[in-house]
Every structure is written in C-alpha cells, then in structure tokens.
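Q&A log
Question type: sequence-to-structure
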Amino acid sequence: MKAVVMAGGEGTRLRPMTSSMPKPLLPVANRPIMEHVLRLLKRHGLTETVVTVQFLASLVKNYFGDGEELGMELTYAHEEKPLGTAGSVKNAEEALKDDTFLVISGDALTDFDLSDLIAFHKEKGALVTVCLTRVPNPLEFGITIVDDEGRVERFLEKPTWGQVFSDTVNTGIYVMEPEVFDYVEPDVSVDWSGDVFPQLMKEGKPVFGYVAEGYWEDVGTHESYVKAQADVLEGKVDVELDGFEISPGVWVAEGAEVHPDAVLRGPLYIGDYAKVEADVEIREHTVVGSNVVVKGGAFLHKAVVHDNVYIGPHSNLRGCVIGKNTDIMRAARIEDGAVIGDECLVGEESIVQGNVRVYPFKTIEAGAFVNTSVIWESRGQVHLFGARGVSGILNVEITPELAVRLAGAYATTLKKGATVTTARDHSRGARALKRAVISALQASAIDVRDLENVPLPVARQQTARGSAGGIMIRTTPGIPDSVDIMFFDERGADLSQAGQRKLDRVYARQEYRRAFPGEIGDLSFPSSVFDQYTGALLRRVDTTGIAEAGLKVVVDASNGSAGLVLPSLLGRLGVDSLTINPGLDESRPTESAESRRAGLVRLGEIVASARAAFGVRFDTVGERLSLVDERGRIIEDDRALLVMLDLVAAERRSGRVALPVTTTRIAEQVAAYHGTQVDWTTTSPDDLTRVGREDSTIFGGDGRGGFIVPECSSVFDGTAAFVRLIGLVARTQLTLSQIDARIPRAHVLRRDLATPWAVKGLVMRRVVEAAGDRHVDTTDGVRVVEADGRWALVLPDPAEAVTHLWAEGPDDTSAQELLDEWAAVVDSAGR
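Response status: OK
Response body:
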C-alpha cells in the first residue's frame, strides 16, 4: 500500500519562517515536520510514498532525495500551479491507481495509529475514510459529524463560531480507493472537503469517518508551531528524538558541547554540534538547533532557535522563534511571540518587542527599539475583527500607529489608484484617527474622498458611489472611551468575512504596499453629500400620502450626526415635525443604556403632550432607530421590529423578509398572515446585508433598532427606516399602538454564560448530542426545536469567551424552563 504526503503549501500564516523555507521543512525538535510524518508512515509499513510538491519544491526534493536515508522509496509529483488538496493527489494518479492509498499532510504533527485507520477503512468497505480528531477550537478546520456506524453525515469547512456544531474535525488524513479519482477533474484546482466529498455524499457513496486517538497538531500558526515543540519535549506525542537524555527531560544531540556551569532546566533540546558556554541558562520548552553557539550569560526560555544561529553574551530570548543563520548580538532582547527570519542581524542591546515579525535578510541596528507590531493591545491578532470592525480603547488598544497599519493593510488589498471614502463621527478621537488613516491610504497610492463628520448611512451611500471601499471611525456604542474602525466594501456594506480574513492576513504579515513619490494619492472633499443622500432617499422610498395625512412627529437627534441630515429631509417630506437635541456634542459621542432609556422617556413625554403621531430617536450616527407610540409609550426594539414588519408586509403582500435566527417566531406568523416569507439569517450584519441585496427582499431588521430598507440600500439605515415608517403610517391611518396591539406577545428569554475558548467546540458537540432526535437548525449556532414548537438557540460568541442562549415558548415559564435545560447542558460541557 502506498502513501501520499502533501508538501506543496506555502504556509503564508507562518511567515517570515516560510518566506525562504517550505512549511514541511520547518523543524520541530530539530527535525523537519515532514520527516516526523515520513517516520510515522514507515512505522506503519507505508514505505512507498509519493510526495506532492509545488512551493519551493527543489528544497523539499534536495532534503529528502529518494528516501534512502530513511529506508523509504520516495517519488515526487510536481504541480506547476496550485491544484488544491484533491487536484494535487490527482496529479499523482499514475502512481496510485492500482490499490488503496493513504493521504497525509506533510506539515501536521501526529502519532495516530495509521494501521488501525487502514483496518477500519477495509472493514467498512469505504470508498473514502476521513481521519477525525477532537480539538478545542475548530474554527480553522472542517467540522464533521458521523453516525453510530461511522458514516459521515455532515461536513462544514472552516466555519464561523456561529456555525460550530461539533469539535470533531477533519485532520486531512484519508484512506481512499482509486475510484475516487473519477470525481476529480485533472489540471484544475479541486478540494477534497469542498468539492469531492459533498458530491460523494450526495450520491450516497460510502464515506466514513474514523475518530482517532492520539496527538495531532496542524502546525499552521506561530502559536501552534511553538506549542508543537513544547508537546514533543513534554512527551505528549510519540516521535523519535535524535540525541541522548542526559537528565530527565534534557536532550542533547551528538557532538554538542555544553559547559558544566551552564544551567539546563528541562524539558529542552540541544541540537548536534551546538555549543553552550558557561553561565548560560536554558529553561523549559527551548529547542536549540544544530551548530548554534550560545555565549556566556545568555538566557533562553521557550525559545525555538533554528540551525547555525549565533546568540551573543547576555542576550535574552523568551518565547520567540529565531530563523537559521541569524546573529543575535550582545545583550539583545527578543520578547514573547516575536519571530526573526533567516539570515538576520539583531544588533547589540537592541530590543525586539513581542509579536514583531522581522523578515529574512534584515538588520536591526544596535540599540534599536523595534515595536512595529501592536504592543499595547490586550487583543491578539486572531480577533482583529469583532462585531463592529476593529474595536478597542482609544490610545490604549486603538492608537494612531495601529490605525496607520490597518489602513496600510487595507490599501494593500486594493489596486493602486483606487478610491476610498473616509468618514467619522463627531468625537475628537475619531477625528484624530481618521487623519492618520488618510495619510496611510495616500502613502499607499490610494485616492481619498473625505466626508468628514457624517451619519453612518451617508458614509455607506457615498462609498457606494464609485469607491473601492470605505473606512468609518466612530465611538463604540455605549462605550465613550472606545472606538470602532469600520471597513466597507464597494457597496458600502461591512467587509465580508473573506475580506476581513484577507485584511487580517496582510496586517499580520506587515507586508504593506508603499507608493512611489509620483503615486501618492489625492485627497478631496465631496460637496452636497447630504442633499445627494436625501434626494436619493426620497426618490426611492414611497412617500405618497404623507403630505395629505397631516402627521406630526417628534424626532430626537441625540446630539449626534443624524441631526445634520434632518433639516433638509423633514422640510422636503412635508410633515409637521419637532426636532429635539439637534446640535453636535463632542463630549457625548455615544450614550449609555441608562441615558438612552432616559432620553426615550423624555421623548415619550413630549410626544404625548404634543399629541404627535409617534416619536423616533436616532443613535448618534444615524444607523439605528427607537420608537415611541402616540401615547408616549416606548416600543421596545424587538417589538418595534414586529411593528415595522407588520406595516411593510401588510402593504406589500408578497416578498421575503430577512431576520436573524434569534428573532421570535411570532415574526413568521405576522409575515405569513400578510403573504410574505421570512428568510432566517445568521446574527452577522453582513449576512442580513446579503439577503437584503436580493430583489425579492422587502424588509430586514435585527431586533436592536437596525432596519434594512432594500429600495434604498441593503444595510441598516435609521433615516431611511424613519421615512418609510412615516409613509406606512400615513397610508394605513393606524396608530403604532393599534398595530402593536394586534400582534401576539412574544416570550423570548436570553442568557449569557462564560465559556472558556478551549471548550467552545466541546460545548457545541454536547449540544448536538443532547438534541437527540429533535430538529436541529445550524443556520447560526445550534437551534433545537421541540415537537411543540418551542425552541432554544445556543450560539458561541465570535470574539469573547461567552456562549449566548435564547429560548422561546408560549409563556415566560415555559421559555424559562427550556432556557434552564440548555444552560445546564452548556454548563456541564464547559466545566
């Protein structure tokens, strides 16, 4: 039986380590990852192996040759272009077409029992057997669910937290029959999990999953790379170490010289022909490569040092990675998470701060303080994007330096000469950060249209008028000392998940594009943006009947930028309006939940005394809307969504409505009564936006004051929702309280539970298991529907160590019982 080792990946997330070295050759305990894989194959009798190569292929071939030194027979299948996981194996079909074969990645560290996996495959008579394992964080892998017989039931590649329904993931190790090649088109990019397996499952072919016991680590990030070293040294993975254990956990390879006065605190590894002088201290989880020189007084802790490195006297290395042929000079200090590429020079007494990346062939001058990565942020780059873009405390987590790097990374994802629209709210912090953003964009050959202070919907609309994207900086809602840097696509919508990942990768690599002097971008300040916005709004939203109805409304601008667009809008609508809090207040760029509530109470008092038809209160950037009825009573946001839905559906009588899965199912009753249909989306705003762009969508909302008016745009727009509401009320001639009264009461309860990151995947698997035969909906998180229609939703938070729960029943008591039941499941799995 033959094996295929896939060794063609670039390993872009591991740069700069993989800038000049293919990922399979990265050393783990001083041996390339792929060598550990080949030795595992040999232990299980798989000595005939085809290696698929593409990126820096010659280095892989030169290192392993024909495999004779390992006692194996290696041949190579070279890809001229990336062919995907299945396409690369198809490229080696000629050598594999006669018998069952095993596929394994050349850059994942494992000690799985491959013999047992092969036996399982043959016992089941499978066409494909997917090797599975349990992991704490399944986001970067393909989630798989199998039935009691081991047959694969469901598969999802690289989910979001809202799509996590298990912690059982695809390891990229497969046992296959040659017939599988019939499903792989030659010379094109094809993936097993994304293309081939779904087709096999659709046709009912025997695709099985084998849950392996043992160690497996996908060495795809700097963190997992360092962790793999520690796990080998701790004995958590069964691999061969080349050397002698001179004391418990202290491994020294042949030819290494260690001075008796050196302090070694294992577990650690010192490679062959390394030299460690007196007064050196090497502590746990450190790996010192071949021919490394460590001079007297140096200190190393959790450091991974590749071959041929010089470490000068009194230098200090903690939790870092040092590339081969690099020189670390006297008293240099390299902090936790830093990575120094191959053939660099780090000068005397220089300091390289944590998480800094230094690419190959660079020189750090003596005495330099290198802090080009983010050093003040409490958030790691893994969670660069949150629910509101990139958020953090002003001048602590979000600094001008960070804003420059983010804008530079964003510009690098766009073409030179493209146009980006920038905007801000009325806070001083947003103003300062926007100036930094503009400078970085121009320096990256991007033309900038600066709107200055405008409502968020205006910024989105202007971005969609010919820009390649946009950036809006605002104060985080409810947190006055925090800011959000929001990125838009060419439609003015929030950057998609794929766009966020692309920006995240460029930012993490710190590979920013810079313009030549003649390419510096232009800066312009568009005029009449408010007139353009209100003109487009009034052309697209039905305003018939408003002037004849003689409505009186009270509008609270909340001392925010929404007040900038109201004067021209209200005058052209022809309504009797009273505007309160219209002026900008720089000292109040946002408001707390308490002040917002107090503002709604005051609005209600004014509406009742003025005998107005209703009152509306904008948030400070004009994105969201709160309602007060003609009696002055506050209509809660989740209830306001149903009121707006009833009005829209009653008038349109057909079409689709976009709502997140957390919305009460009363919405389905309201929509169905008027002949419309609900499209359930995830809680992500970009998913609502996606459905909002479809021609048949007539309305959308999130139950938190965000409303989509599709005839205007597919994003939340408080002003558009306000205009639409006036028209609907004018034409129906019903009051908001009358509409509210005819809608059944909803009984939806919510609870948030602290959940450590390490057990989030386990929690979701336990939820699916606890659901049993009940209907499970995995649109976002896991929603379990009872036979009597009650439902509970379990949704892991994408940015915090929290799991959110919702439950709905016919009354509060029933909903509370259901909520308690699923909270207990989450609690028990999280312990």
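Response note: The mean pLDDT is 89.
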